[in-house]
Design goal:
The protein has helices at about 15-25, 50-60; strands spanning about 5-10, 30-35, 40-45, 65-70. The chain is of the alpha+beta class. A 4-stranded antiparallel β-sheet has the order 2-3-1-4, covered by helices on one side. The longest helix has 12 residues, at about 15-25.
Length: about 80
C-alpha cells in the first residue's frame, strides 16, 4: 500500500531540485508520485517503499536530507 513520505532536503536552487528529481525518476517503477517544493525545501514521495529506502535514494544527490513524517496515501 502506498504511503506518502515527507523529507526536508537542503535545496537552494533549481539545480538542487533537479538532482532530486533525477534520482527519484530513476525509481519510477517503485515511486508512484513525488512533489518537490524548492522554496520550502520539502520533498513528498508517494510509494510502497519504506521511508528509509527513499531517504537513501534522495541522499544519493549529496544533499543533506532528513525524514520528517509518513502519512497514508489517499489511494
Amino acid at each position: 500500500m502506498a504511503q506518502v513520505h515527507e523529507y526536508k532536503v537542503a535545496m537552494t536552487c533549481e539545480g538542487c531540485s533537479g538532482a532530486v528529481e533525477r534520482v527519484l525518476n530513476k525509481q519510477k517503477d517503485k515511486i508512484e508520485h513525488f512533489d518537490i517544493d524548492l522554496k520550502a525545501q520539502q520533498v513528498k514521495v508517494r510509494t510502497a517503499l519504506a521511508a528509509d529506502e527513499v531517504l537513501e535514494i534522495i541522499k544519493k544527490t549529496g544533499k543533506d536530507t532528513q525524514f520528517v513524517s509518513t502519512s497514508q496515501g489517499d489511494k
